Amino acid sequence: MPPQGLLLIAAYLPESWLVRFIDENITEATAADFNWADLVFVSGMHIQAPQIHDIAKRAKRAGKVIVLGGASVSGAPELYPEFDYLHIGEIGDGTDRLIDCLDESVAPPLAQMRFETKERLPLCDFPLPAYNLVHLEHYLIGSLQFPSGCPYRCEFCDIPALYGRQPRLKAPEQITDELNEMLKQPGHPSVVYFVDDNFIGNRKATREMLPYLIDWQRRHDYPLQFACEATLNLAKQPEILSLMRQAQFLTVFVGIETPEVDALKAMRKEHNAALPMMEAIKTLNSYGLEVTSGIILGLDTDTANTESRFKEFIDLSEIPILTINLLQALPRTPLWDRLERAGRLITDDMGLESNVRFLRSYDEVVAMWRRCVAYAYDPERLFARFAYQVDATYAHRMDVPVRGKLTIRNLREAVVLGFNIVLWVGLLSNYRVSFWRAARRALKRGQVDAALGMGLVAYHLIQFSREALRGDQNASFYSARSRALTRPIAP
Ligand code: SF4
Predict the structure, then answer these.
(1) How far, in Å, from the CA of 240 to the mean position of ligand 1?
(2) Among 37, 69, 238, 277, which is disulfide-ready with 87 (CB 3.0 to 4.6 Å)?
(3) pLDDT of 341-378, one tens digit each?
(4) What is the DSSP letter of 120?
(5) Contact, 52 vs 5, CB < 8 A?
(6) Residue 159 CA: which ligand 1 atom is closest?
């Protein structure tokens, strides 16, 4: 996905500043890029800390002044002593003071300077992110922000501390303006992800915004599909669900975290237990929403039964895609504070999969993670869950005109994708029988998209699980290890 934060900052900088935007997930900044710049602005999440340090080294070597903002530095500024300027918090008064300071001089300061936002810029005053500075065709999924903040206080989550508990919102017209901007690029992705941590953080606002989205889709012949993240109590909002279905929301990521009610209470995520979990998942499915689930292993409440309960959850929920992580303690969370008090934070880089001293033995927890990943992504089971979705979920999606998606580029991509899926998954893989069983069911119902999608996603997930079992994948999407292993870091 295109990085929303940097695109927003790029748009917010004074018009007289020339901006060159580089996403190092796509391509590296070159020596010529560094030479061109007066200032290098960097942003990233905790997982990207090694890359952030690496960019700092390269920029310093080129003699540039460096500025760091974004989620990681806002949570843990002490991790980045090498930067000249730190921007802490969201866009707001701290950003304005930083810009004024840099407008005065781009000479390096004598000591690191920090600018912290106390007064956030209201989202309705956000400029249109600088989508014009990126090639959207390079991305699988587009990204868009609607609210910021979340009213809940889950123990492990840094969102309430970083972005507040009172969700702040963009106006519906801002959303449609952003979509118009994306549509200007013929190669834009066909799926746009609402990156908000909780799409229903403010239900009234979500309910009011969705009709604008539906209207926009109708007027443009439905060129896009949407995905978002939300809490499981979305299942109690039939009106919102119906509007989401009409707007073409196809997937919702839900931080289910654990099927164990006691564990949910301990992590202060009781809202996930507000109604029976399976019932809630089936309700979302009945509105055409495929649920993707976040799962955390290594909780203090884990017992010898956790593994079997989780496997049972996979079978009963029929959720195809689960992101299965080990618990990580993020700075500025109640979890971090509790573990710090208990002396259970691992602060040295010991090459471990988590910075938490688990109550159960480390080896036992990591071994459980491997067995759970192997179980979830066993090809036979995975395709059986996809096959279930054909009737339970995909069949409930609204039929919409395909005109908006009928571009030469989309057709060409579909042909290439279809060829690759048939070749690599349908003919050459050792799980081709399972694939065809699920794909046949989708094709019988005319769900060509779904058949291709399940082939593509399953190929990736099966590959991932095989690497995990060989020990080549790390046990948390929040750990720096995988990036450090896959990308050479500057000496
Ligand atoms: S509901 Fe989600 S975003 Fe909100 S505090 Fe909990 S984990 Fe964080």
Answers:
(1) 19
(2) 69
(3) 999 999 876 677 899 999 999 999 999 999 999 999 99
(4) B
(5) no
(6) 8
